[in-house]
Every structure is written in C-alpha cells, then in structure tokens.
Amino acid sequence: MSHTLTAEELYAEIKRMPIAERIRFFSLLADSAFREDDFTHEQIFGETYQEPFSAPEAAEYLEISLPTLRRYVQSGKLVPSCIVGRNQMFSAQTLRTFKRNRGN
Questions:
Q1: For 64-98, how does the pLDDT look when each residue is reduced to its tens digit (9 = 90+)?
Q2: Which one of 4, 22, 53, 77 is CB 3.0 to 4.6 Å from 72, fit for a cystine?
Q3: How far apart are CA 70 and CA 66, in angstroms?
C-alpha cells in the first residue's frame, strides 16, 4: 500500500533536499506548470474541417455567435466564398486570415 504525502510532509521533504536538488526540483515544477495545455480551437482542429464551411461552422471556427458572423458579412468585414441557395459558404483560408487579423 502506497502512502500519499500531505502538503506538509512534502514541504518537509523539500526542506531536507540539498540546495542544488531543490533548484532542480523547482525548475522542473515551473517548466511543467507553465507548459501550454490550453490549446486554441485552431490548434486542436487545424486542417480537419472540410471546405467550404457553412455559416454555423464558420461561426464555431471563429468562436463567435452566428448573429455576429452575419453582422460581419453584412458590413463587408467577412465575405463568403460562394452562396449555395440561401446558404453562405466560407473558405478555410478566408476564415484563418480573418481570425488571425482579429487576434483570436
């Protein structure tokens, strides 16, 4: 049966470590603690979407609401690559560029 250290026991063990080992320990801890684990939508999904994007897919990719996407289109800030019937379709390149320029 293994024993799990309490915070106080761990602290006491760290205090008993030689200085060089403490420095190494805290360096490893800091390196692990500040590693990027909170990935963006683009980092996760990247190129997995099939082109062209529908309006709801484009809104999800841009991390905005559908009404906001519609406002961007209406104001000319975002241009659909094509219109199929009543559906506006967006190219991945257009969305990537738009997202990058918005700072998301």
A1: 999 999 999 999 999 999 999 999 999 988 998 99
A2: 77
A3: 6
Class of the CATH domain delimited by 41-102: mainly alpha
**In one letter, which amino acid is 37?**
D
Name the segment(s) of the chain with CATH classification 1.10.1660.10: 41-102
User: Distance (Å, rounded) from C-alpha 62 to C-alpha 68?
Assistant: 10
Name which residue leads in pLDDT, 41 or 68.
68
Q: What is the C-alpha separation between 61 and 57, in angstroms, rounded?
A: 6
pLDDT of 37 reads 61
Q: Which helix (H) or strand (E) holds 84?
A: strand 82-84
Report the C-alpha gap between 45 and 86 in whole angstroms. Answer: 27
